[in-house]
Amino acid sequence: MKTRLAGATAALVAGAVASFVAPVAVSSPAAPAPTADGCYSWSKTLSEGASGDDVRNLQIRVAGYPGSGGSLAIDGVFGPGTKDAVVRFQQAYGLPADGVAGESTFAKIYELQDDDCSPVNFDYSELNTCNSDWSGGKLSADEAKANALVTMWKLQAMRHAMGDAAIQVNGGFRSVSCNDSVGGAPNSRHLYGDAADLGAGSQGFCALALQARDHGFGEILGPGYPGHDDHVHVAGGADTWSAPDCGL
């Protein structure tokens, strides 16, 4: 009788232990919480060979890192140029510079952008002092505003390269009527939304004009170029660099 009781007790204890430890043995680590950003969130690591809208959004954010004299295509294709731009972005912010856009790269981008997708140090209102809806230029309102977004990210890269001192933006997009009223060129890049006029700020005109060469601006006009002694004009478009008083 004593033997049967002892055996039964042992069985009960063993069963209790088994029922206690079994859930621990089969449990798995909790998945990390997904990143949620007010503007745009990436759901996967991106590297050379990837394509799609997630690549295009990445290209917008690294458009200011094509290398001196370069320009990064915003085409949604992660090619060698995008990889090089990601490397330069990573180097600029002290991240592992492998050209692969992963958690640390996206975390830095989230830190740098506002909920409307503009970089934290620039605002759409600075790039459009003409009207409120981006209409009346050479492109649709949506295209003009999209071009202004890329310009702001180039300026953000330029600002960081110059010690994060504020860059003064005096204007950007113009409708045809706004452009005519200030005597702008008939095919000014301002009409396309991808131009900005910069004040001297703390850096000075020449420092701004020379720095702009490294951040994807194909058109740079400054002191010494007719009508540009009081500002530096930076824009997309074909390569036209002219600021004679600055040695450019």
Shape: globular
State the end-to-end distance. Answer: 104 Å
Strand content: 5-15%
- The ordered string of helix (H) and strand (E) elements is HHHHHEHEHEEE
- Biggest sheet overview: 5 strands, mixed
Structural class: alpha+beta
In CATH terms, what is the architecture of the largest domain?
2-Layer Sandwich
The count of β-strands is 5
In which order are the strands of the major sheet placed?
1-2-4-3-5
- Percent of residues in helices comes to 25-40%
What is the number of independent domains? 2
Overall mean pLDDT: 89
Pfam families: Peptidase_M15_3, PG_binding_1
Protein name: Peptidase M15
Keywords: Signal
InterPro entries: Peptidase_M15A_C (IPR013230), Peptidoglycan-bd-like (IPR002477), PGBD-like_sf (IPR036365), PGBDSf (IPR036366), Zn_M74/Hedgehog-like (IPR009045)
Strand and helix layout:
Layout lengths: L1 H25 L26 H9 L18 H13 L10 H10 L28 H21 L7 E3 L4 H6 L13 E4 L6 H7 L7 E3 L10 E4 L4 E3 L6
Parallel strand pairs: 3-5
Antiparallel strand pairs: 1-2, 2-4, 3-4
Detailed description of the structure:
This protein has 248 residues and is α+β, with helices and mostly antiparallel strands. The protein has helices at residues 2-26, 53-61, 80-92, 103-112, 141-161, 176-181, 205-211, and strands spanning 169-171, 195-198, 219-221, 232-235, 240-242. The chain folds into two domains: 44-112, PGBD-like superfamily/PGBD (Muramoyl-pentapeptide Carboxypeptidase, domain 1, Orthogonal Bundle); 117-247, Muramoyl-pentapeptide Carboxypeptidase, domain 2 (2-Layer Sandwich). The chain is built from seven helices and five strands, in the order H-H-H-H-H-E-H-E-H-E-E-E. A five-stranded mixed beta sheet has the order 1-2-4-3-5, with helices on one face. The longest helix is centred in the first third of the chain and has 25 residues, at 2-26.
